[in-house]
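Section handout, structural biology tutorial.
Before the tutorial, make sure you can parse a SMILES string by hand: atoms, branches in parentheses, ring closures as digits. In the record below the ligand is flavin-adenine dinucleotide, and the chain has 453 residues. In the tutorial you will relate the predicted structure tokens back to the input. Do not try to memorize them.
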Amino acid sequence: MTQTLHIIGGGMAGSEAAWQAANMGITVVIHEMRPKVETFAHQTGDLAEMVCSNSFRSDDDEGNAVGLLHWEMRAAGGVIIAAADANALPAGSALAVDREAFAKTVTERVTAHPNISVSYEEVTSLPEGPCIIATGPLTSSALADAIAAEAGQESLAFFDAIAPIVHFDSIDMSRAWMQSRYDKGETEEERTAYLNCPMDKEQYEAFIDALLSADVTTFKPGETAGYFDGCLPIEVMAERGRETLRFGPMKPVGLTNPHQPDVKPHAVVQLRRDNALGTLYNIVGFQTKMKYGAQTTVFKTIPGLENARFARLGGIHRNTFINSPTLLDEQMRLKSKPNIRMAGQITGVEGYVESAAMGLLAGRLAAAEILGQDLPPVPVDTAMGALVSHITGGAEAKTFQPMNVNFGLFRPVEAKGGRRGRKDRYKMYTDRAKAAWSEWLGLPALDESSAAE
Ligand SMILES: Cc1cc2nc3c(=O)[nH]c(=O)nc-3n(C[C@H](O)[C@H](O)[C@H](O)COP(=O)(O)OP(=O)(O)OC[C@H]3O[C@@H](n4cnc5c(N)ncnc54)[C@H](O)[C@@H]3O)c2cc1C
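Predicted structure of the complex:
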């Protein structure tokens, strides 16, 4: 008899993980604390409740990395994406759903599965047998304590403080330059680890004015603002004094602009590499509560970032997540306790789609392990593979913050006949991903027309 797989948390990731494992013949028990124990954001006792927006974002599987993730989840028979499709509302190229009907559909399908049962209880300690922890951004404190005791207090965060992340190839290097402050570092790579964008006095003053007048979001009731100790939003720093940023993250010292070596910058915005591929850079110290529209307007006033494309914008939220790059192996298992896999937002991905996708992978990987099957590694050229590779190793562990799926996480495509436009490149990414994902799933090879469907 095979072992039972216990899944803690019946949200996006837990429901999908259960579905995938159950379809592979595994007996699954989901442990869900709602409705007995509530969170400040959930309203019902349904599985896979959407706590805020009703959108699964872009459904464009040829030009958008989230849309590609949708495609991969459909190809893998995902219950979350199927329930979304069944309850879709008109929303242009986005996949938006009737949230109540969506959660009811997931709940009905998952609870009706002959291999799945649901136990409505809070889990407060780490189980011994095969298990997936998918308790999400609002993991209960007793379980968070148990995870911290196993993983180390410093490996568990309760807020994300996300600085905006920019695609390297959208930065104007005729204005920006690579240099670490005071050229510190043993190697050339260390001495040029930062990307610098200079500002003169006028540009700095205009930037501060823009920060002070930008629209910001506020915390929800119950979502305490404990972030003030360690990581102030930049607009709050600016409120404390017009020079605060110039003496903080934007200090202009130890740097020489090679484009204008005789001009001392008044302030410098620094960006730091965010992934091993070097395709993404985060703006150092620029965590913010500004609304997304305001962020793009304000950040594009930074010299060198006028045409920046953002892989993600900044934010500060209540969010429990682990330092996956140090704690998880490539199979999403805790290195220190390999009977436990982690999935969903607690692994440091962000969003309904990414969380469900990581649940899908964890469910399949856990089931294969129980069955003694040897699955090949998840292909890195798929959206699933790019995301899981990022959280389990590609991301910088020291500055690890939750991540949405985006093409910056993918290995660059080699365009035959030179550089192509963005649309063509994205199509190349998605074609490559679809072929690799189909092969991994054991599906027939795609021809051109079926890939485009
Ligand atoms: C306030 C807020 C707003 C958000 N808005 C959006 C948005 O608009 N769009 C978006 O894409 N994402 C949003 N997110 C992120 C979103 O919640 C996640 O992306 C997604 O729901 C994560 O899926 P998950 O399965 O990892 O966690 P969840 O979907 O949260 O599921 C985790 C489940 O585990 C249960 N649980 C927790 N602790 C225990 C325990 N000890 N024992 C048993 N069960 C437990 C919870 O009750 C919950 O059902 C938001 C998050 C928050 C907190």
